[in-house]
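Page 37, continued from 36.
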């Protein structure tokens, strides 16, 4: 599922497929230990057992790790873009526009099939390119530091987290990227990154005089499982963004 997230940007919380290569990072200087988050995002059983807290740490991303992290983010968008595109293009207004475009092309193109398929192909491509442009990039560091990477004890980078302050005072902090490699799904990486995000948001609110500690997590509409997990952890849906009156990304928030 996703939080694909992804999108202070339009993040999505994603569970990503594995990158084509693995980068081993054995320099764990100044690691930040992640709090045990057994009460957060309880992920169900899967091919791997949940990693113990002392096997996973979170630290700021090093510059040499940026290509790998960008690759993870772009791969994560591919996990959800087809479902988001299907959701967007099967809404009644979108179907009406596609039908109108097909009818117009029939007077220009000799092929009925081409007139029917070309608008659909272009619309899907536009949705995918838009999602990749928004969610496949890495936002610059903000007042909350980072971007942060989750690192296994062996040195494997298995997840990424980026945070940013809200647009207005009192908005709290926002998760702008939260992605986990598919190799490490259902092993506790996502819930530990979320626990770290909450801890970081609380510390940031206390140091800047924010009126309240709050975390906002945007989730792609196709990631129903992630939305349910967030609600079970005390997050509440509070709107989102989309097009033609239909929501594509829902935002969940929690007072910390």
């Amino acid at each position: 599922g996703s939080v694909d997230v992804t999108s202070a940007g339009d993040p999505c919380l994603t569970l990503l497929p594995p990158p084509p290569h693995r980068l081993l990072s054995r320099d764990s200087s100044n690691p930040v230990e992640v709090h045990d988050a057994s009460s957060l995002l309880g992920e169900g059983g899967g091919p791997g057992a949940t990693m113990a807290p002392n096997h996973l740490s979170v630290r700021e991303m090093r510059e040499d790790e940026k290509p790998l992290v960008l690759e993870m983010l772009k791969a994560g968008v591919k996990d959800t873009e087809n479902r988001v595109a299907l959701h967007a293009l099967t809404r009644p207004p979108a179907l009406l526009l596609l039908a109108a475009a097909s009818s117009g092309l029939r007077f220009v193109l000799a092929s009925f099939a081409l007139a029917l398929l070309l608008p659909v192909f272009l619309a899907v491509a536009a949705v995918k390119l838009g999602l990749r442009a928004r969610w496949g990039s890495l936002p610059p560091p903000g007042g909350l530091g980072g971007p942060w990477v989750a690192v296994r004890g062996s040195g494997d980078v298995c997840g990424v987290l980026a945070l940013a302050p809200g647009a207005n005072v009192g908005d709290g902090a926002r998760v702008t990227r939260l992605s986990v490699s598919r190799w490490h799904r259902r092993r506790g990486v996502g819930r530990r990154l979320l626990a770290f995000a909450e801890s970081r948001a609380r510390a940031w609110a206390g140091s800047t005089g924010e009126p309240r500690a709050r975390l906002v997590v945007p989730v792609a509409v196709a990631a129903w499982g992630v939305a349910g997990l967030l609600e079970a952890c005390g997050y509440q849906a509070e709107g989102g963004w989309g097009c033609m009156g239909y929501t594509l990304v829902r935002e969940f928030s929690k007072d910390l």
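Strands lie at 2-6, 11-16, 32-33, 56-60, 148-152, 157-165, 173-181, 214-220, 236-243, 246-255. Flag for discussion at group meeting. Residues 66-89 form the longest helix (24 residues).
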